[in-house]
# Entry
Amino acid sequence: MLQQTENFVSRDLQSTLDQIASGAKDRKDEIVDLLSSEQPKKSRQIDAVFDRCIWWEGCYYCQDEQGQWQRVKCFM
# Structure
């Protein structure tokens, strides 16, 4: 699967997201649905590549099977 490595997060943010995710609701279905009409290819990619997603400080972050977080969509 294609992964956009420019969206990988720093080690510090990785740690923060791990902590947040331990008590947060999985939002993968939410971001997949949100992007399905405006960015269908990206929506399918997120669904196929990532195990879970969370919302934090205006962005969706998703975690792959290796435990790496990537920023997938931000709203400002």
